[in-house]
Each structure stands twice: as C-alpha cells, then as structure tokens.
Amino acid sequence: MGKSRRNSLIWVLACAGISVLWGSFFAQSSNAWIDFRAVYAGTRCLIHEHNPYSVSDLGREYLSEEGQRPLASPLHYQSITLYVNLPTTFVVVAPLAMLPWGPAHILWMLVTGCALILAILLMWNAGAAHAPRAATFLASLIAVNCETIFSGGNTAGIVVGLCGVAVWCFLENRFVRIGVVCLAFGLAVKPHDAGLVWLYFVLAGGSYRKRALESLIITAVIATTAVLWVSHVAPTWMHDWNANLATISARGGINEPGPGAVKDGSIYSIVDLQAAVSMFRDDQQFYNAATYLFCGALLVVWSIWTLRTRFSPRGAWLALAAVSASTLLITYHRLWDAKLVMLAIPACCMLWAEGGRVGKAAILITSIAAFFTGEITLVLFEMAFGSLHTSTNGIMASAITVVLIRPASLALVAMGIFYLWAYLRHAEPEKLDSSTIQGMECASE
Length: 445
What we know:
Layout: H1 3-31, H2 34-47, H3 55-64, H4 74-81, H5 88-97, H6 101-128, H7 132-143, H8 147-152, H9 156-172, H10 176-189, H11 191-204, H12 206-233, H13 237-249, H14 273-277, H15 284-308, H16 313-330, H17 345-354, H18 356-372, H19 375-385, H20 395-405, H21 407-426, H22 434-444
C-alpha cells in the first residue's frame, strides 16, 4: 500500500472513529441505544413466551429487565412498546437476547460498527481505483456522519453494512459465499433497505441472479422459522403488528412523515419523499400516491433498462447508485438508513475520473446527498432553522419550508434522477433500437 493510499485509509478510519465516539457519548447521556433496546426487549419478550407485538406485554418485559431505563417520555414509550420490526429480526437478535443487557448491547454495537465501517471501506476501495481523492472525500463525509447509528443502535447500521459488503463481493467476484449470506440477512431484517439492491442482481441475470436467489432461499428459511416461532407464542401477532404500524405512522406518531413531526424534533431525520411532499399537502393518501407514482416511474425505467442491457461493472455501479436513492425515497426511512448512499461512491468516482461536466455534476450531486443525509449537517440545520416559524400555506411558502426542513429528501431526488440519467446514457445497450432508447431517456426525464 502506497503512502498516499495509506493516509487516505487512516483519514476514513479517523472519520468513522469520530462517529463511534460521538455516538457512544450521546448514547450514554441521552438516547441510550433506544432502537436496540426495543429489539432486545421484544426478542426477550418472545423468548419468555409473551407477545412482543402487545404493548402491555412488551412494556412489562422491558421494565422487568435489569439495565433498562424508565420510559420517560411519550417518544420513548412509542419507540420501545410499539414493536414494528419484522419477525425475522427475532431470529437474528435471539443469540444476543439470551445475554444480559450489558454484554448484549456491547456486542451489538461492535458488530454494527464492524459491518458499517467495513462497507464504507470497501466502497472507498472500489472508488479509489478510479479517483482516489474523490473516493476518500466521499467515504470520509459519510463515515463522519453516522452518529445516530452508534447512539441509537438501529438495525439499519448492520443492514446497510451487510448490503455494502454483499455488493462488493458480487461485483468484485470475491468472497461470493459471504456476500450471499450478507445479502440474505440484510433482506431478512430490513427488506425495505436491501430489497432493491437484491432486485438489481436478479434483473442483471447470469451468475448474479443465481447469487440473489441463493440469498432469497436463506432469507426464506429465516422468515419461516421466525413466523412459526411467533405464531406459536402469539397467534394474534399479525393483527397486533398491523395495529402498531397504524399507530406509529398516524398523525402524532413517531413515524409520521407530515409536518406534525416537527413537534417531536424528528422532522430532520426523516428522508423519504413523503416527508417532502407532505409539506405541500398534509394528506396521507396524497403524499403516498405522489411518492409511489414518481418513484415507480423511475423504477420501471431502471428495471427495463437493466433487463435490456449487457452487464458491465460500470453499468452495475451506476444502476446501484440510482437505486440506492430510490430505495430511500419510496418508503419510510431515516438518517441511519441513508448511509446506503455509500453505494454511489464507485459510480461517482468513475464519472469524475472521466472529467467533463458529467463528472463535475456527479461529485457535486453525490456530495450534496451525502452532506444532507448526515447527522452533523442536520443538527446544524435544526439549530439554525428549527426555531423558525415555517408555513405550508401556499406553494412558495411550502417550497421554502421543504428546502429548510427537508433538504435530505430533495438531495436524494436529485441523486436518483441524475444517476438514472447517467445509467441510461453511459451503460452499454445490448439490443435496443434508437427509438426505444430515446423513449426511455425521455421517460426518465
């Protein structure tokens, strides 16, 4: 390893270390790994043969455990007792849930840190082959902005890390079996994070489809085991789970994407497109329909192009950069899920190395997306604009409000559109006539 490359590696690791230390400090003082507390308590509840999707059962289980903090606020109460994770999470967390809280949460954060930092380093390595400085800058920007993962312990930290590792293994054709297992566990715990990445490899065909299907088989085994376990202990779990989802996403719930989220301070952490559209019309049916229509159109074009183009590493990285943004926009996601933008690092570096306006646009748009999905950035935004009176009366007022309090959503929209355009323009078509290509490019615009 040359001196320059070694220095770049040290810089990325130092930025990741800042996130670990700062996140751990916040966990000790306030947030207290609240997301892992929820899955830990839920799994313990199931192990003790109680219904983890029952608010009363889970509340009693949580308070009976040593090392658990009192539910001091409605926000903490909903976060812990309204359990909405998939049953597959129980199978993954069960080995740790058999341990006391102390060693359990330390091991969880250790695994989270290893998975996430390894994924960032692998994306940096893939990008550095084309543009070392750009790769180091983007990887450092993402690595230094992961505090909420280490303060809350959300499962997204592990899932995004596993996703990045799987992508690198598949595209570099190294440690493929490990990649299959990583993608399988990512799908099992958070399919709304890993699902579209998995879909790309299915559409890409050949050995990549085979690997994706092998991952699906492992996921299916985990899912079957989980459903049988939960159904045996709590036959009404499906009804209770749906009730929890409805409550947590309703007006006033902690997952509400609308303007009401301002009240509990979570408005800056929600990054999906519903959060931005809701500023123009706070109607769940409207902002869901608008989001699904917009993202669905992008995904249809992306899917058709993937099916009709010859596979190449260049095209794969561009496709994954585009779909990483769409993944975060189409349904509920927060800052910890948004670390998935790391998948755009190799594609950005490829375009930057080629120079020209496209390369400059790539580095600018990717940097903005990484910047505005970062914790440090949005803390500064909340300090600057959180106390301002914002209005959603009128299009201009709504537009200003979106820019001030939903910049992450706007940055991801720009990133998704740009990389889809780059994918259509720069990937190599297999057998497409000029009229089809022109029609697909027009549809993406």
